[in-house]
Amino acid sequence: MKTFNHVGLEPIEMVARITEGRRLYLTPSGNRYPSVTTVIGNNSKKKAAIAKWRKRVGSEEANRISSRATGRGNKVHKLYENYINNELTDDILGEDVQSKYMFNNSRHVIDRINNVYLQEAALYSDILKIAGRVDCIAEYNGVLSIIDFKTSAKPKRESYLYDYYVQEAAYAVMLRECYDMTVKQLVTIIACENGDTQVQVVEPKREYFLKLYEYIQEYRNTYDPKTGG
Fold this sequence. Notes:
229 residues
């Protein structure tokens, strides 16, 4: 089993609150900023697509699928976290067949990670007035990266990954602002139920930052920024 090297940055302490379905973070400076996932999820096209899907499959089935996906994601993500922290044991690995299967089939990809700076860490930006919790800041194949862990029933089409890149670009901005560190790439690792592991590595392109700004503006047009949301 691989041993991961941890460089170690001082983590930022932030408390999150759910207010009217929105996750808001209280930053060390006392500001209340919405999470980047809340901001991206607020965009009208995404909300319309979700509403259309829920109508097509029915509320009960939609809730079942969403709950299952959340549970699956939490279990696999926790295994990654413990593995990268060099704390994975048979007890932690547990008896859940699906999460073990997805973890074991993706471990060869996780092993490309090393020199871990932050994991499950809070970040924020006073410039963008957003916050969030990044999965992992580390080197991937020797290159400093924002690393995002996802799960899925099967590999996703490229068009479905775009907002992941936007979210990761937001973390890149926050990392630069909070720690004066610049990443070279955005890495999305998707463990799939069918045993595949989808890996997408992209540069933090200008277009992702522009799309992020669009989402932020739409969010601010929806909610009063003076309230912290």
